[in-house]
């Protein structure tokens, strides 16, 4: 039987209510009117969400949840770091989707808002299903581990692919049910076309973002179970990572080329967590090849991989810029003493 901190129902309800309040405040007050989110605004909101995430893990949860110890704090922090890192790869895919559909900058926040709201619902259902599965069949953790190792290897050697809406079954189904207006209708997802209810291209973008997050969740949800089996920690770390995704997008969207090796780092993280899950005893007496890795070690390894991949990317970008800059022409007066000398 898995042992974790038991969280009363009212604390689950309180946490979800607070999150919904923040989302309503975001859309109804701070982003009531469509506008282009600038880098400074996005950076400020990213700082707010990261600060709230750390505040919850270090102060709010230890005081709110009975039995919360330093171990739970480390598990939450590690899970949050893993989910936030994996969401960065999602950011780059979303940027490709926006570029493919040529979404005006002032409408992108609205798509991300509703996309993330849907992602929270989908991930909540997946976490509930995963928790029930792990509680009933402990051996599924080994299946998750093997899946993460295979996924990490595939990610490491896969080539970058473009956006292909025609391959998306959700997009094809929506186009069969509704006609699609040829142009954007402001922030609207639905409109009228020849007297019929139709969807706008912005709705197609939203469906692409939702299905993309569902694909990423298939990787990230098993990854967080490799850090902790506590459903409250799994859910809260996912929620805070997803909430910061909108502002993180506007910070990183124009810096995609600067993160050349991030995908390599993320693939190594997935393989590391998968191996960790395969080596963990998961409740039964450990065999000769099994051992329980301390959460502190897992946190250090994951952080080191992410930081190393980002630093390598930045160094590579600096090197490419230096090579692209032409060398200044040699000083003709220095190489030829007669040039520029006063006449005799």
Structure description:
There is one protein chain. The chain has 344 residues and is mostly helical. It has a domain at 9-137 and 168-254. Helices cover 68% and strands 2% of the residues. It is built from twelve helices and two strands. The chain has helices at 9-30, 39-64, 70-101, 108-136, 140-157, 169-177, 201-225, 231-243, 245-252, 262-279, 295-324, 332-335, and strands at 190-193, 196-199. It has a two-stranded antiparallel sheet with strand order 1-2. Helix 4 runs parallel beside helix 7 (201-225) and helix 5 (140-157) packs antiparallel against helix 10. It is globular, with a radius of gyration of 24 Å.
- Helix tally equals 12
Number of strands: 2
CA-CA gap between termini: 100 Å
Helix content: 55-70%
Uncertain ranges = none
Overall mean confidence score, pLDDT: 83
How much strand content do the residues show?
under 5%
CA-based shape: globular
Instruction: State the major sheet.
Output: 2 strands, antiparallel
Strand order of the largest sheet: 1-2
H/E series, N to C? HHHHHHEEHHHHHH
Structural class: mainly alpha
> Rg from C-alpha positions?
24 Å
């Amino acid at each position: 039987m898995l042992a974790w901190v038991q969280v009363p129902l009212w604390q689950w309800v309180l946490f979800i209510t607070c999150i919904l309040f923040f989302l309503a405040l975001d859309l109804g007050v701070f982003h009531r009117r469509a506008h282009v989110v600038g880098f400074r605004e996005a950076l400020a909101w990213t700082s707010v969400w990261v600060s709230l995430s750390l505040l919850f893990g270090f102060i709010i949860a230890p005081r709110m949840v009975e039995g919360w110890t330093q171990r739970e704090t480390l598990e939450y922090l590690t899970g949050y770091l893993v989910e936030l890192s994996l969401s960065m790869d999602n950011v780059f895919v979303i940027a490709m989707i926006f570029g493919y559909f040529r979404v005006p900058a002032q409408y992108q926040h609205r798509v991300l808002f509703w996309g993330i709201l849907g992602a929270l619902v989908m991930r909540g259902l997946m976490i509930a299903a995963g928790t029930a599965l792990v509680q009933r069949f402990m051996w599924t953790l080994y299946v998750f581990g093997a899946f993460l190792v295979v996924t990490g290897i595939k990610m490491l050697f896969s080539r970058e692919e473009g956006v292909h809406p025609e391959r998306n079954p959700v997009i094809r189904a929506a186009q069969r049910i509704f006609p699609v207006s040829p142009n954007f209708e402001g922030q609207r997802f639905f409109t009228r076309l020849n007297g019929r209810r139709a969807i706008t291209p912005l709705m197609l973008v939203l469906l692409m973002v939702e299905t993309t997050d569902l694909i990423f969740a298939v990787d990230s949800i098993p990854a967080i179970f490799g850090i902790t089996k506590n459903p409250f920690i799994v859910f809260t770390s996912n929620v805070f990572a997803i909430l910061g995704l909108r502002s993180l997008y506007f910070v990183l969207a124009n810096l995609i080329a600067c993160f050349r090796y991030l995908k390599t780092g993320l693939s190594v993280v997935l393989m590391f967590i998968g191996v960790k899950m395969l080596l963990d005893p998961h409740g039964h007496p450990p065999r000769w090849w099994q051992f329980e890795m301390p959460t502190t070690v897992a946190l250090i390894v994951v952080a080191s991989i992410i930081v190393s991949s980002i630093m390598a990317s930045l160094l590579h970008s600096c090197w490419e810029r230096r090579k692209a800059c032409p060398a200044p022409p040699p000083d003709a007066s220095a190489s030829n003493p007669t040039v520029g000398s006063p006449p005799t």
